[in-house]
Amino acid sequence: MGWMSHTPRWAVALTLAIAADLLFVGAVSHIADLLRHGLNPYDWAPSWLNLYWSSLALFDTVAAALLIGGKRQGMDLACAVMATDIAANWYAIYGIQHSSLPAQPGLQRLTAFALLVLSTAPFIRRRLVDDLAPIVDGRVDPGGGGGLGRRPRSGRG
Fold it and tell me: Which backbone phi and psi does 139 adopt, to 5 degrees?
């Protein structure tokens, strides 16, 4: 599917900015919950679910930072976070609280964001840098290979 690699840079940049921004919003929310309530902010949820949501303070932040840096690992982590977060929230809403999507605007927003991340990932990922610290001309390039849309030089002339 060669047409995927032709995603316009502006579309990639806009999608990365939206995803990174919303991941940072999620991270701030989880950090606030941690500061106010510790590792169990939701007394109605099981401990493992509270621990998962608390861990998103770190994972959301890392995913957003990697996306801002134009790294594929950021999109990979964002997809993993969104897939697991949406599953955890749907379980919490339906399985624990016995509620529904129409009654939960937060779940509606999270579902829309998850769909954005997961549906754009194949198009966006191809335009991102592959390594956290790519090798350029035999040396580690701490700049990450130039960021959005540019690949590290392969060393071939």
Answer: -125, 155
Side chain identity at 42, as an amino acid letter? Y
What's the pTM? Answer: 0.79
d(C-alpha 13, C-alpha 70), whole Å: 9
Ordered DSSP codes for the chain:
-GGGGG--HHHHHHHHHHHHHHHHHHHHHHHHHHHHHTT---TTS-HHHHHHHHHHHHHHHHHHHHHHTTBHHHHHHHHHHHHHHHHHHHIIIIIIS---GGG-HHHHHHHHHHHHHHHHHHHHHTTSBS-SS-EETTEE-TTGGGSTT-PPP-S--
Tell me the per-residue pLDDT of 44-64, one tens digit each, with 9 for 90 and over. Answer: 999 999 999 999 999 999 999
Question: How far is 20 from 13, CA to CA, in rounded Å?
Answer: 10
